[in-house]
Design goal:
The chain is mostly beta strands. The protein has a domain of about 120 residues: Jelly Rolls (Sandwich). Helices cover about 10% and strands about 50% of the residues. Strand 7 and strand 8 form a beta hairpin. The longest helix has 16 residues.
């Protein structure tokens, strides 16, 4: 076999092998409570892809799970993204340099929400959307987090719906 034919055969085998990797969708269940708010249960999903660099050894993890909701711009949710979209904000502090991993899951379509990580008073660190045809979930990891105050913004990209969400924040210091 000549070299171009071998290269084409190798490339086609590589494309075929990579085409089968997919991500399983998240399961979401909603149950009404006695109040007007809804309780949202998100089933854990195994990670089938790498979400970022490895965590440096010696750091200690702390995890926080925040349940909330964010609606369209109105009296309960003022605009905070492009002066057009509402968001819920969550502040946290890194006492020492370390790493952060964020997972956002919500009810709705995969492009309904956006997550942003800001350094307080110093600007945007990370912004992420879910894949267009993927599950309503965003996960990212940053290992270059310096000791200071931070803000996570859960942005509702839809102007006519309220979305319940679960935000999991893991910090390593």
């Amino acid at each position: 076999m000549d070299e171009p034919a071998i290269a084409i055969l190798g490339f086609s085998l590589l494309v075929t092998a990579c085409a089968g990797s997919t991500t399983a969708p998240s399961a979401v269940a909603v149950s009404a409570s006695t109040s007007s708010a809804a309780s949202v249960a998100f089933a854990p999903q195994p990670s089938v892809h790498t979400i970022g660099p490895e965590i440096p050894p010696g750091l200690v993890p702390t995890q926080e799970v925040i349940d909330g909701s964010v609606g369209p711009v109105g009296p309960d949710w003022p605009p905070c993204y492009l002066e057009r979209y509402a968001c819920e904000k969550h502040d946290f502090t890194m006492e020492r340099d370390g790493a952060v991993e964020v997972t956002l899951r919500w009810e709705g379509n995969s492009r309904a929400m956006l997550i942003q990580l800001y350094r307080a008073g110093a600007g945007l660190v990370h912004e992420d959307l879910a894949p267009r045809d993927g599950p309503p979930e965003i996960t990212f990891r940053r290992t270059d987090i310096t000791a200071m105050d931070y803000e996570l913004r859960v942005v509702n990209m839809e102007t006519n719906a309220t979305h319940a969400f679960e935000l999991t924040l893991t910090t390593w210091e």
